[in-house]
Design goal:
The protein is of the alpha+beta class and 133 residues long. The chain has two domains: 2-74, no CATH class; 84-133. The chain has one helix spanning 87-125, and strands at residues 2-9, 14-21, 44-48, 70-74. A hairpin with a 4-residue loop joins β1 and β2 (14-21). The longest helix is centred in the C-terminal third of the chain and has 39 residues, at 87-125. The radius of gyration is 37 Å and the shape is rod-shaped.
Length: 133
Amino acid sequence: MAITTAITITITMIMITYSQVGDVPGMSEGGTLTNVKFYAENEGESILDLYDTILINSQELFIIHSANDGTVTITNPVGGIWITPNKLELLAPYIELASAISIAAVVTAILVKRKKKQEEAITERKGERVRVN
């Protein structure tokens, strides 16, 4: 016994193919052949326009049926609740890192400048004026 369901989705159309293969008793009277679950990213409503629906029995004869249009209403998108992130909290570690790097660069520049002045002072005392670039 094999039951297969294939669903093809394009931007405007969903095609559902449902078949039972092998020694399987067919459906009789009313019943549900398949269910479709919708997962959405945003809230909203969409019309389900069912057209060109076809049902075929095991003798490959068309089954007279009716298909009812409907709507899909999404009230809670997949992924849980919506939260507006605090951008400053997200950026705080990077701002701190940039500040620390800037402070380290300024301190290094001051120390290098101070070291050059000390070396120039030492060389002037010896009577030799040597400039270090």
